[in-house]
Specification:
Layout: H1 5-8, E1 23-27, E2 29-30, E3 33-34, H2 36-40, H3 42-52, E4 56-62, H4 69-74, E5 79-84, H5 93-107, E6 111-115, H6 118-130, E7 135-136, E8 141-144, E9 151-155, E10 164-166, E11 174-178, E12 195-198, E13 228-232, H7 242-251, E14 255-258, H8 260-264, E15 285-289, H9 295-298, E16 306-311, H10 318-321, E17 324-327, H11 330-344, H12 348-355
Parallel strand pairs: 1-4, 1-6, 4-5, 5-12, 6-11, 7-11, 13-14, 13-15, 15-16, 16-17
Antiparallel strand pairs: 2-3, 8-9, 9-10
The chain binds flavin-adenine dinucleotide.
Flavin-adenine dinucleotide (FAD) is lined by residues 158-159, 233-235, 259-262, 273-278, 290-292, 294, 296-297, 310-313, 316, 329-331.
Length: 356
């Protein structure tokens, strides 16, 4: 028996897919400017748009945001839709989400890509739900089903060594997110030009009110921006044990991170977790100490330059993926490494070479 999609889901009838064209990347602008993660989403957008023979469109909403449109174009977008309105000067997830929904109804894109930042994670499900369409979060790759034109939204399922290919077969637009640093920013080309479309949207009154903003003190560089990371796992054994990792990280101008087991044990804060349910990082040097190398952890270091593993078990899986491995108890090797690096301080050139 063959069922059509309206039998399966009478409330969400099938869309005429042919009416939908274009791959959108929603830009996130804060007081720091256009978020790099939004530009990173142009990489999968360009790949998918090539296969769909459509164009990449940047979407910028907020107040005083038009000035960022050119960034989108220089990095590969053909057009940018801009809604620049004082009523959008404060970010409210539903307010911003409603503007995207209205634009999507008007322009009918086939795919909306949103970086899975804090804001993206709030807005994307709201947008998909309001448009009564599917969403795939935390994609790691994209492709296109040549027969149907559906986008294959590829991501690892929870806890398995597989890659799921997820489709939204009957509804449009398709909505997907990817985490920051999973894709690189496409190269900038200053010779590129494109169209900027300014749109007026009726912005409704927000149903919430921002009363005050309290900035969280961040003394350290966030791990996703660090060039050197010394990362500890369950093998460190205690919070106390992380002190020597901190010492090594300070010497190398880096930061400390860790595996989920180290986070669950309360030895390091959750925002320093590397991996599938933590953060993706792209340091020049990643030193993994007392970490076994589970797939969910290694997922977060795919973009790392050189990986050095220190583990007392010579059969630890991490040695299969590390560029350099030291089979030893970290309590023996790290003090020696610190002593050696301290001796190089008199020769800063050698220390720089060691990191690079
Ligand atoms: C859905 C899902 C999502 C997940 N997401 C993440 C994630 O985002 N990030 C993540 O890290 N994990 C994640 N995990 C957990 C992951 O599967 C592993 O359990 C975890 O990464 C293991 O952490 P570990 O390597 O610190 O600990 P273990 O696997 O216990 O390894 C400890 C290692 O330390 C070594 N060791 C012990 N003592 C010493 C010593 N003195 N000196 C040197 N080496 C020593 C041991 O030989 C061992 O290899 C996820 C799991 C699931 C199911």
């Amino acid at each position: 028996m063959s069922l059509n999609c309206s039998d399966l889901c009478p409330l969400w009838p099938c869309e005429d897919k042919k009416e939908y064209k274009g791959v959108w990347v929603v830009g996130e602008v804060s007081e720091k400017g256009l978020h790099e993660a939004s530009l990173q989403m142009l990489t999968p957008a360009l790949k998918v748009s090539k296969k769909l023979r459509s164009e990449v469109v940047g979407v910028l909403i907020g107040y005083n945001v038009k000035k960022y449109a050119d960034e989108f174009i220089k990095h590969g977008a053909s057009k940018v839709i801009v809604v620049d309105d004082k009523a959008l000067s404060t970010y409210y997830p539903m307010l911003y989400g409603d503007v995207i929904v209205e634009l999507a109804k008007r322009f009918k894109p086939e795919l909306i890509l949103i970086a899975a930042t804090m804001r993206g994670r709030e807005m994307a499900p709201y947008i998909a739900n309001t448009l009564k369409t599917g969403i795939t979060a935390d994609c790691t790759d994209f492709d296109v089903d040549e027969k149907t034109g559906d986008v294959l939204q590829i991501r690892p399922p929870f806890g398995a060594m597989l890659l799921a290919h997820i489709k939204t077969p009957s509804r449009r637009p398709q909505v997907s997110t990817a985490r920051p640093n999973v894709f690189p920013v496409p190269p900038r080309d200053d010779s590129r030009s494109g169209e900027i479309i300014e749109v007026k949207v009726n912005v409704r009154k927000p149903r919430m009110k921002l009363i005050s903003v309290k900035k969280i003190k961040k003394e350290e560089v966030p791990i996703e921006k660090a060039e050197v990371i010394v990362s500890g796992g369950k093998g460190i054994g205690s919070k106390e044990g992380f002190k020597v990792l901190e010492e090594l990280a300070n010497l190398l101008g880096g930061v400390v991170a860790g595996s989920r087991k180290a986070v669950d044990a309360g030895w390091i804060p959750r925002e320093r977790q590397v991996g599938q349910t933590g953060k993706s990082v792209k340091p020049i040097l990643y030193i993994a100490v007392g970490i076994s190398g589970a797939a969910q952890h290694m997922f977060g270091v795919r973009e790392a330059g050189v990986i050095v593993a220190i583990n007392k078990d010579e059969n630890a899986p991490i040695f299969r993926q590390a560029d350099y491995g030291i089979v030893s108890d970290y309590r023996e090797v790290l003090p020696k490494l610190i002593e050696y690096i301290n001796s190089l301080k008199k020769e800063p050139r050698l220390l720089k070479e060691l990191i690079e």
